[in-house]
Amino acid sequence: MHAKTSQEAQEAHIAQLQAQIDTLQKTLGPHENAERIVSNHIKLLHRYNEAKDATQILIGRLATLKETTVRQIHIDLDLMDDEDK
Hints:
Blueprint: H1 7-28, H2 34-66, H3 70-76
């Protein structure tokens, strides 16, 4: 069985979380909206992923035209990540 959390413990935990929120809001700035920042970041990630996908399609077509592999095109264009080398 799970022990129930006491009302005092819950209130202490809520106070601790609120203190963390307050600290983060101070770091972020009083006039900044965390939800808006996260939403904008997600939009930017979508744009990045769309550009990356389009690039990979073009690299695939280039590999087909050159009759080589996508990996070889990545090597030729120095597009390899450190972990891929």
